[in-house]
Design goal:
By secondary structure, the chain is α+β, with helices and mostly antiparallel strands. The relative contact order is 0.16. It contains four helices and 15 strands. The radius of gyration is 19 Å and the shape is globular. Helices cover about 20% and strands about 40% of the residues.
């Protein structure tokens, strides 16, 4: 099992860890700051430093899966191509240090929080999501047209209002009693631990919120940190799907 330090603090950039095992040329650690691909958010990249000056570039991070294809509690650090000699030196039990590509991660955090603001502006079910360092997109299950300029102005207002974000949790029973909290039609929050992680974008009072939903991704602490984002494109993907693509302002 890999302890996922990023769940409680998305701003951790590095940590010390030990190698649990190598699996299919990927590295499993006992703890990590690397976020594995999931919930539409891309996996982290960065560097692993090991004994004797060992340096391994990590190109991606994924969740390990069991024989049935179900995600487990282990996280796979995927080395970049050409790391074979370095991997051959690494052994279970080795003490290592891992560092994420912070500039890339921070862009992912900013875009992920921006998609939650978009969910507030477009209160429709989400039927697809992709969050990368260069763009983010949400597919909304709806038939009505959307206005690119209106959404861009709405995002700018919510970013400028500097709303704080709170990481919390609810029980699986509470989620079952409030199924509308899950905005995504295609991705369900992970279950099995009894608790489901939530992200709340605080409104103008303690009781109000801009957005509140289960989410395992990494986020900024305040909407102001998102910076200038724009709706770069709106597409009609099908009769009942409108795709909204976000980009960085020029």
């Amino acid at each position: 099992m890999t302890q996922d330090l990023f769940r409680s603090d998305a701003y951790l950039r590095e940590c010390e860890a030990r190698v649990l095992r190598l699996e299919e040329s990927c590295i499993v650690l006992d703890r990590t700051v690397f976020y594995p691909q999931g919930g539409g958010q891309a996996g982290d990249s960065g560097v692993l430093f090991g004994p004797g000056g060992l340096r391994i570039a990590i190109a991606d991070t994924r969740k390990a899966k069991n024989e049935d294809g179900q995600a487990t509690a282990d996280i796979l650090h995927v080395p970049a191509p050409g790391q074979g000699e370095a991997l051959a030196v690494l052994r279970p039990g080795d003490a290592v240090s891992v560092q994420i590509d912070w500039e890339r991660r921070h862009k992912l955090m900013r875009f992920h929080t921006a998609t939650h603001l978009l969910c507030h502006l477009v209160p429709q079910p989400v039927d697809g999501c992709s969050i990368t360092p260069d763009y983010a997109r949400l597919d909304f299950h709806m038939t009505e047209p959307l206005d690119k300029d209106v959404l861009t102005q709405g995002l700018a207002r919510l970013v400028g209002e500097a709303h704080a974000l709170e990481v919390g949790a609810i029980s699986e029973a509470e989620l079952d009693a409030n199924p509308d909290l899950v905005r995504s039609m295609s991705v369900q929050p992970p279950r099995g631990s009894g608790q489901v992680r939530t992200i709340r974008i605080v409104g103008q009072s303690e009781q109000a919120h801009i957005d509140y939903q289960p989410c395992g991704g990494t986020h900024v602490a305040n909407t102001r940190e998102i910076g200038a984002v724009v709706v770069s494109k709106i597409e009609k993907k099908s009769a009942r799907t409108r795709r909204v693509v976000l980009g960085w302002a020029a």
